[in-house]
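dude i think i finally got it to work??
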Amino acid sequence: YTVQGKTERALTMLKKVIDLQPMNIEIRQRHIDLLEEYGQREEAIQEYINLAEVFFPLAELDSAKAAYTKALELSKSVTDGPGVRMKLLQRLADLDIQRLDWESAIATYNEISEVSPSNKKASVTIVDLNYRLNQSQAAEQEIDRFLLLFDPKTNQEVLEDYLTTLNAEVPNEPFIVRKLVDFYKELDQREKAISELDGLGDMLLDAGRKDDAIAVIEEIVSLGPANVEDYQKLLEQLGNL
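look at this
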């Protein structure tokens, strides 16, 4: 059929073969090649995705990534390119995390953020992975980038959700706690700010950072908590150590 120029019939025949032998990689690739040759790029992209999914049960994650990457390249030439591109980038990023290739995952999630700057999942993952790789400066820059997108007074729920999610995903990270404290202070939510500062102070004391802990406790005192005397006594005790 292909030699005779009967491409539609050739494609139909290949689909039937794939139905009979879904794990036949060679036939699937031939089908994709013919779809591209015939200009059916949207269908070719879907078949690349289907091909990638065939590799998962075989634990061939590198081959799955190669299929997604080819689909991503092809998506540049289709009408709904941006929408398809986002889905493929998300799949590639998730796959890189499965492969424990965190550097590659960060690069992919950065691409997602370029297309969708306010994508919370992408930002949280970028921060988490950078901290795991001991790249704290990159993590902090990403947090600041995301926070600058929103006004705390008009987007309170968005920012609180983002910061509390970060605090849960990356616990005991002073920079994140500090951002959460500053957020609550800006909204005059003193009790929440004091609660976070209290946890930060304990964290710093456990880490042996007495001077930093004292500064945090002094900040708590300045906010006028109900049990201010307790914090003042703690300051006195720490000063005598």
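The mean pLDDT is 91.
im so relieved honestly
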